Amino acid sequence: MPGDENMKAIFPGYYRPTDKEFSELWDKCTFIFDTNVLLDLYRYPRKISSDLINIIKDKKVFGRIWIPYQVAIEYQAERLGTIAEQVERCVEVKDYLKKTIGQLEEWFNSKQLERRHPSIESKGFVERVKVSFGEFIKELEVIEKKQPDVDDEDKIREEIDTLFEGRVGSPPGGQEYLDKIYEQGKERYERKQPPGYMDTDKSSEDERDPFFYKGMLFKREYGDLILWNQIMDEAKSNEKFKNIIFVMNDKKEDWWEEVRGKTIGPRPELFAELSSEVGVSLFYMYTTERFMEYAEKYLGIKVAEESIKQVELYSQLKQSLERRLLQRRSQQIRLPQLPRNLRDFLISRQALEKYSGRVAAETEFATIQAAVHSMMVDNEMQVLPTPVLLAARTQDMTAFPDTSVCGVGKVLDRNGNAYTINDKDGYILYQHDMIADGTQTRLVNYVNTKNTTFWYSADANGAVTQSTTAP
Fold it and tell me: Please, what is the angle between helix 69-111 and helix 223-237, to 10°?
């Protein structure tokens, strides 16, 4: 009868699955992979690519994998460009370092420091820089030789071909099928209906021109919408697609719901459309690093924590670069500038490594401090009731920055409702339970990963301290 359905049944996209539903989803789902997941296999270090492939090969996953035809053809069309991109990066860095050495030597010569300031031994300094940069250039040359080129044997492609043999969706039913999606896309993009509307700029980029295959014109700005339609087509006719996990590394707003910079989950409209149009029961999305992490949690597949952290780091760097490119409206990628005061910067390879480590530490500290502040604002907190002090410093963001127990230190949520023993303890940065409702289903992440590289403590005011050693 009308009105008998509960809120979750009426608005499924707005509800995060329960722990039981997540277990059911991982146990029964079809795993669908986006193009960027396949292409990133060429960008990751070899061990990480191997780890990810081994997860997909695992018997608990392998029998349930699938990719839409659109993903397969995008992979084929962009594969060589991705390989070439990796070779070009090595060349760019080498050229940059060589140019920097020349500019440094020219600058010191122009100042005639040894004649004007005998105490400054500029020649010795320049020589040390040359040695240090030279060692790094040699390492790059080794990497470059190992890096497959576009005409070399492609072992990753062989793996992908084997993995997805018989697991690729049907091709479009002709140009008429695609043209209908393009017309539909114009309307959806205009009203910002996900997915795909963030790709409208692709139509103006030279290297994102449409391409033809088997007499059909594929417009790249509608690529996401094509694959979305192909997922729905398959789910409509295949009972195995009633539970779906979609693994993808596109972090744009037309796929992910974000609140105050925090990723909550898939856009509600996506599950709503799958549910109402083709009867999908459960749907969730993961980035590669979260897929690797939860494959261990729900399927017991062992994954090296270091691999997850490296994928996370790559994802952050890629996302940062994409933001900068969007701001510039340009495809020109520039390498970061070295500090101008080179005398204080680098006299050895050890100094370079120390500098890189310091940048990583400062970046992580800023992220954690901002996350603590955001969490306290969201929860309308002036102080932390039970802060994690220096002696108990931790890398575990499910236990930081506050370990209050529900009903004791964690008493009321921001709406004035009382927490109970069934709610989740702690004012924490990862999987934080913000709502006092007797469940642990509406959890929020203020950081993207459960564990950090460094150790952290906090005072009652939320001021964070970073440590390089365990307690």
Answer: 150
